Amino acid sequence: MSTAGRRQFIGQCVGLLGSGGIMAALLATATRLAEALPAWALRPPGALPEDDFSAACLRCGLCVRACPFDILHLAHIDDGVTLGTPYFVARQRACEMCVDIPCAVSCPTDALTVPKAGIGAARMGLARMTGPDTCYSINGTAQCGACYLACPIKDAAITMAPRRAGARLYFEPTVNAAHCTGCGKCEQACVTREASIKVLPIGLARHDRHGVSRRGAG
Amino acid sequence: MPRRGWLVRHRWLLLRRLAQLGLLAAFLAGPWFGVWILSGDLASSVLFDTLPLTDPLVLLQALVAGHGAQWAALSGGALVLLAYTVLGGRSYCAWVCPLSLVTDLAAGLRRWIGLGRGWQIRRQTRRLVLAAVLVASAASGTLVWEWINPITMLQRGILFGMGAGWALILAVFVFDLAVSAHGWCGHLCPVGAFYGLVGRVARVRVNAAARTHCTDCGDCFRICPEPQVIAPALKPASPDASPVILDGDCLNCGRCLDVCEEDVFTFGTRHATVPLRGPGNDHHARDTLRSPVLDQGPPDHDR
Prior knowledge:
By secondary structure, chain A is α+β, with helices and mostly antiparallel strands. Chain A has helices at 3-34, 50-56, 62-66, 102-106, 136-139, 146-150, 185-189, 202-205, 214-217; strands spanning 73-74, 86-87, 126-129, 158-165, 168-175, 197-200. Chain A contains nine helices and six strands. The radius of gyration of chain A is 23 Å and the shape is elongated. By secondary structure, chain B is mainly alpha-helical. Helices cover 49% and strands 7% of the residues of chain B. Chain B has helices spanning 6-9, 11-33, 56-64, 71-87, 91-96, 99-113, 125-140, 150-160, 166-179, 183-188, 190-199, 219-223, 231-234, 255-259, 286-289, and strands at residues 38-41, 44-47, 51-54, 204-207, 266-269. In chain B, α6 packs parallel to α9 (166-179), α7 (125-140) packs across α11 and α8 crosses α9.
């Protein structure tokens, strides 16, 4: 190969690698930036931690089809959730906690895996009393307990703890993180306009981003 | 005027549309009518509640991102890959991909208006995009192309609800219509690039078997979304060269079979090395072509 030819060849290679590299960097950055799971969106039971989930989920919707209660959505481009990935909104329709977890069974990858200890070991999030001032039971509007009654593992995941404020006796809905699966039944049932109890992503609920591994729970 | 009827001149196009829409129907029969033929979507699905099928490129992105090494995904991906190594890699683009309904409409409109080929990006670009997608998936640990893939977005939109995804589909349509003929599928789409690589070993190929009958009318070149693949088979430098279109970028769409008034093209395998002649294939021979019906007048190519 002549010197000019070699120069041209090397130039083309560099150009190709350069433009390919820039494209790859832009794609990788943009994709990661576009990935999101807002606190109001919950993953189906048995989901990998969010970073891994977006790599393992093929966006096929088999879990959506498997759900007997039609709870799951695949994210649209304008939903604010990573495009094409499954989620549900507890306030609209909470997870029914099927014993056989058909959504996780249907997943072709490890994005959703059936927890070995069953649906009770799923950690879709963690319920938190986010509005103690609006909660009827706490602020004394009514003896409500809707969240407690809705909880599929009541007395374990939620208890109504007796409290005293001066002369007033009331019951405070209290979540036990050791049992709460984050199904969202309490949030769906809450009677206040904005739910006073909400299922939050585990890290957010625990005030510790690295506190609980959802992979370990799954 | 063409000598053959409209149906004959559109037979492969109609079959393709039937396949594309039939596939969508097979996915929609479940949620609409409770008849579950295919569940899921093109990324990954289950046929008749038993057979897993997975798009090999989606799976490849997951694998380089460090996931997806599960039995259902791997076997499904292998099955689909095997099918396309037989049927022709980019048969996916012509016969399956729902976006080609959109881009073919844009290409048809361009032809009808007479817009020419427009801005032509280098066809190699799509392979660069493919490489970049895989590198980026490995580097970022996520499925990079599924962030923007208009194919899966369109199909997912039809099956599960579109949201604002129409905007991206419209963008592809406008790009193909106003900027570049076959701009998306022919130059940028890494999915097509991937299946193009599969097509390099695929069995089923278009064969310019009766190339000696070619009248140089140019119909096939004008209709073909990848016209550069035709010449080596139709107009070879040596008469002994294979009449088979071996280029992986051929979509096996069959439009050249549709439009050719001389029936030069046929579907065959990639191993047919010499123009098919002889008793077993005499339907390609000119004497059968020149039937009484066809001999009513001189062929008119002023179309």
